Amino acid sequence: AENGADQMDWVDKITGVIASLLNAPLPLEV
């Protein structure tokens, strides 16, 4: 049960990182 909770935790973190990357302007055009 605890393993499932940990998996959801890292999935939530990864999703947040991906969302941040998609929403953030790429520094390549600076």
What does this structure look like?
With 30 residues, this protein is mostly helical. 0% of the residues are buried.
What characteristics describe this protein?
rod-shaped
Topology diagram in text:
Elements: H1 2-23
Order of helices and strands: H
Give the count of helical stretches: 1
Give the CA-based shape: rod-shaped
Largest sheet: none
Uncertain segments are none
**Structural class by helix and strand composition:** mainly alpha
Rounded to the nearest angstrom, the radius of gyration is: 14 Å
Strand proportion, as a percent range, falls in under 5%
Query: How many beta-strand elements?
Result: 0
Roughly what is the average pLDDT, rounded to an integer?
A: 82
Q: Estimate the helix proportion, in percent.
A: over 70%
Separation, N- and C-terminal Cα atoms:
46 Å
Brief digest:
This protein has 30 residues and is an all-alpha fold. The protein is 73% helix and 0% strand.
